[in-house]
Design goal:
The protein is α+β, with helices and mostly antiparallel strands and about 300 residues long. It has 2 domains: about 70 residues, no CATH class; about 220 residues, Fumarylacetoacetase-like, C-terminal domain (Fumarylacetoacetate hydrolase, domain 2, Alpha-Beta Complex). The protein has 6 helices and 19 strands. The two termini are about 20 Å apart. The relative contact order is 0.21. Pfam families: FAA_hydrolase (PF01557). This is Fumarylacetoacetate hydrolase family protein. InterPro entries: FAH, Fumarylacetoacetase-like_C, Fumarylacetoacetase_C_sf. Keywords: Hydrolase, Metal-binding.
Length: about 300
């Protein structure tokens, strides 16, 4: 199953890539479930049970420009650093072995899969394609063996990063440089794990202006999703609708020689096999363009 945020309303999506149809959940459930995409995670088990037997009607064509994040208002956004060995190497660090490095992105940075994002002046703005996991029920001190039963599904994510601000403090303080408006794209929809051929081994990639920058598979994660859910929930409760950015592979601008940064006019395309594609354009501050963030 795929669920999406279409013009701020919760929908179920069916159909082949490029010809998707959306079905309004509130209307099809006769108000059993509301229209707010974020609210569905608080009733995830009931929603999945209803959706499995629902006779959907009144479908409309999906306009990609009207898609927002499938989890637009998470209470917690957690992110994992150095979770691919090749990215750790290009960043000049040893790969983590005991516990995954964890930081936060503030929820106000979340945006949809087709945003125009304003770049801060003078910044070194970088891309990081990532698999995103969204929590479907409260998870606290759960085991890795049970962890995936707490996951609602997966989406494509971009952990956009302004490296000067990220590295300005000593030691580096990640959260501010990774939480500018629009710096947390998630989309194009959430896909439940049973809808993926192999949820443990998905191809992911991103390109800038058509030039491939990153390419890997989620099977290369040092800490896969079950381990992350177990380790994070050992310390704090993970709440329904929380978002986890699971880490990025090699190929970011910081690790290139010479280094490369996003610039106004660039188009960033991010893809994950079986989930879909996001496409973002970038604008300079003060040019009259504002971040598009449908909720």
């Amino acid at each position: 199953m795929r669920i999406a945020n279409l013009s701020g309303r919760l929908v179920i999506v069916t159909g082949e890539p490029g010809a998707e149809t959306a079905y309004d959940v509130e209307k099809n459930s006769r108000d059993r479930f509301g229209s707010r995409p974020q609210a569905v995670y608080d009733e995830w088990a009931e929603f999945v049970s209803w959706a499995a037997a629902a006779d959907l009607a009144g479908g409309t064509a999906v306009d990609p420009g009207e898609l927002g994040s499938p989890a637009p208002e998470p209470r917690q956004v957690l992110a994992i650093g150095l979770n691919y060995r090749d990215h750790a190497a290009e960043s000049g660090f040893d790969a983590p072995s005991g516990e995954p490095p964890v930081f936060t992105k503030f929820p106000s940075c979340i945006t949809g899969p087709r945003a125009t994002i304003t770049l801060p002046p003078g910044g070194h703005n970088d891309w990081e394609v990532e698999l995103v996991a969204v929590i479907g029920r409260r998870a606290y001190q759960v085991t890795a063996e049970d962890a995936l039963s707490y996951v609602a599904g997966y989406a494509v994510g971009q952990d956009l990063s302004e490296r000067i601000l990220q590295m300005a403090a000593g030691p580096p303080q990640f959260s501010m440089g990774k939480s500018l408006p629009g710096f947390g794209p998630v989309g194009p929809w959430l896909v439940t794990l049973d809808d993926l051929d192999d949820p443990d081994d998905l191809e992911l990639s991103c390109a800038v202006n058509g030039e491939q920058m990153q390419h890997s598979r989620t099977s290369n994660l040092i800490f896969p999703v079950p381990a992350l859910v177990a380790r994070l929930s050992a310390t704090l409760p993970l709440l329904p609708g929380d978002v986890i950015f699971t880490g990025t592979p090699a190929g970011v601008g910081l690790g290139r020689e010479p280094q490369r940064w996003l610039a106004p006019g660039d188009v960033l395309t991010s893809r994950i096999e079986g989930i879909g594609e996001m496409r973002h354009t970038f604008a300079a501050a003060g040019d009259g363009t504002t971040t598009h963030n449908p909720v």
